[in-house]
Amino acid sequence: MLAAPLLMVVLAGCGSTTQGTSDNGAGKSSAQSEQDWQLEFASCMRDEGIDYPDPDPDGSYSPNVTDEEAFNAASVRCEKQVGPPPPSDVKQLTIQEFDEQQLKLAICLRERGFDVADPERSGVGVITPEGATQADFDACES
Fold this sequence. Notes:
Layout: H1 7-11, E1 20-23, E2 29-32, H2 34-47, H3 68-82, H4 95-111, H5 134-141
Antiparallel strand pairs: 1-2
């Protein structure tokens, strides 16, 4: 559960190997797994100057976001370069469901002592606060 301007990044946190076809707008079309897409996206984000690790084997990841505006801009550029994520077998949330989930996450993280603002735009997730661990996110999911 990360933050990013697009649902893709949040949903990319789930480790699936569903095959799909992507077209990145430049005519590049290729079948790739979610994990392959995540690795390519992470590499692009690093090329854009974002501290963005490769995903863990389970598909989870925690980028170190210090500049939300730069992170969001890099995410948009990388999705254009890499293409949209492949289809996932994870339940797709509506924007409203996603927004509600992210608001609950922000509230929970604040209750755990993190300085987290409510998501400002529809479809934009909570930025991972400095020092937050997967255990913090797991606790907020329950």
